[in-house]
Amino acid sequence: MKPYIAVVTDAFREALASRVLWIVSLGVFVFLAVLAPLGLRDEVTTQFKRFDVTSSQRLKSLLENSARSTRDTAASQVVNALDPDLQTRLRDAGKPNVKRLRTHEVLDGLNNLLDEQDWYDAELWKSTTRLSELRELDQADAENLNEVQQRRRNRLRLEAALPGAFHPRSGDSVRLRYAMFDFPDAFVLTRTQFVEILNKIALPLIVNLLLGVLGVFIAILVTGSIIPEMFQSGSLQLLLSKPIGRSLLFLSKFIGGCSFVFVNITLMIVGLWLIVGFRLQIWNHNLLLCIPLFVFLFIVYYSVSAVAGLIWRNAIVSIAVTVIFWMACFLVEVTHEIFDQFVAQPATIRQIAQTDGDLFATTQKGEVIRYGQSDSHWQTVLEAEFGSGTRAMGPLVIPQAQQVLVAQIRGGRFNPFSGSNDTLQLLTEQENWKPIDGISLPPGTREMFAGADGSLIVYGTRGISRAGNTLESESTEAPATGMLSGLLSMLKSETAGFTVISPTDLSLDTPMSVAGVPTSQAFVVYTRGRLIRLVAGDDQKLTIDREINLSGSANQRAAIAATAQQLVIAREDSGVEIYDLQSLEKLHDVPLDTVGKPTQLNTPADGGDRVAIRFADKTVQLFDTSTGKPLSVSVPKQGSITSLDWIDSQQLLIAYDLDRALTLDVSTGEVIQQWQPGRDVWRIVQDWIVRPLHAVFPKPGELGETVEGIVIGEREIEAGPPSEVDLAYDRRILKIWQPLLNCGVFTLLMLGCGCYYVSRQDF
């Protein structure tokens, strides 16, 4: 072993003698020295910031309605304490010549109340939903609270008075500081927010850019000459004169270059880990696992450089070939991403439904499509502009009226609630499935579903509403337009065609989810940690029949569904639970065996004791809600399922592989029917060229996802702006092991080729 160790040491010394190395090492020390003074200062969360607002429209609407109301409420008490000019503008909002209120003006007015105490009325705040922190502060002796604690208490009181207008923030905030200088207020975050931003964004970005891109490129420059110089006159003969095998000689030189890179990467990662730990008090030990990962990333590129050095015996050619390989990997990855973003994702089915043999779906692009049996292609019923962020709501089948209801929410993928001019679209067979303009949705609508009697039910920030008998638009009045149209619509007590049926004392605060109970006029509601059962009276108005507070954080997003006897709730951090529908007593914790978190719950409309749960990794599991145990049926197309819907308690409609569908008999596991639409030219190119090429080509660029997963400590991340409403938002399962396996096989292949080549050459 001594001769091989000597070769490794010699290769290390060659790299150590490079001036580039010393420049890089100096740069690492300078970077760490510049980063070292960064620190944190603990603060208490008091002031409202712009990013605390869930919906500026909702905040203004709550204040404006309270300014006009004659009732004494907590919100009206807040309005009465505001600046008189602000009160006047709130009362007169929407009138001609009244200056439009800006969100920052409202926040400034609320922040001014943090230092005052005379606006609080304990009796009025008893009817509000108060967090446990506020209840503790209210019970504490006011004389024992310091100024900061009083400001914190006032903020929580304002949040309780304006439900759903603000994101709940924990009291422990941190302010970034550099040496002795504090950053501006914009850099004040809760500690949870800061830890999340640091671990999920900052650290992966820093290590990927500095080590994954710049570091690896410089390392290739420094080590590119090690293998070619081995073939210089006299060097190779001297080495081969010793009892050393040619293949092991090549591998020893290769390991020597890698050991040099290992030292420098260790210096960078350990220095960053110590600074983050000592200065920011965040000890993310997973960061140290990036050391072998980035060494492995270098090995992938260096294997190409080493083989090129063997063949051409020139350092410049070796580096050039490695750069070409880098660019080829980059182009293949970019091409795959472009096709995925512009071809595959827009066509992905998000919701699907069937009526009398006709198949309808909405896509991620926001379009409404119908399957044409004659040509076996999806036909566009409602188009959507690419990149507009349109969210399609539905399709919702109303069998009693033989209608399919859909709606397009403009900007709905970025704003989870509907706006002022979003209308229903009615599809009927009599009109050859052409869209008919329906009534306008109540502003703030999140989702719609069919009641047990076939009526249309919608819910959102304005509560739960029921549509009348006529869904077609009968109004000839032109809709309000302009900047004030949304505000004017929010001020209306009700939207024409809809009647609010939820209790007046029920506030649907985000996160929220509502579902109807099959075969009854009851509803189940989840809102900010509360589970509520509503029942309808003779006038169809709902009243609270029973409610409980769930354990765990009240800020967890959730999806809820009901059978005739049970209700099922999936929360992002608490898993899936089954409760008795009448008593709201917990019956079962559903055993899950999946990587992703639940994103969709579906129960049969006929009340059958079954639930289908779809997860972020595009898998589906079926459970018996009466026992909490999984059904024995094997669901096909796991890993590619994008949507599902029960036809009845025996048949499940599944959308998979972007735009295909099938009907599954859950009793026998038999596929009853399949829809396999034809594909256009771009889909053919993607399926037969882009995807196969991407599958077989090495993917060192995807090791960034491995780094991200290691630093975060999770395999699932949000792929876009998270919804504050429910679980139905984009998530992404990080590819941690696939890039390692793919690149590992490629590296072994390259090193094997190098060993074979050097053993067969006559030097």
TrEMBL record:
Gene3D superfamilies: YVTN repeat-like/Quinoprotein amine dehydrogenase (2.130.10.10). It comes from the Bacteria. GO terms for cellular component: plasma membrane. Keywords: Membrane, Transmembrane, Transmembrane helix. Pfam families: ABC2_membrane_2 (PF12679). GO terms for molecular function: ABC-type transporter activity. The chain crosses the membrane at residues 20-40, 201-227, 247-275, 287-304, 310-332, 740-759. This is ABC-2 family transporter protein.
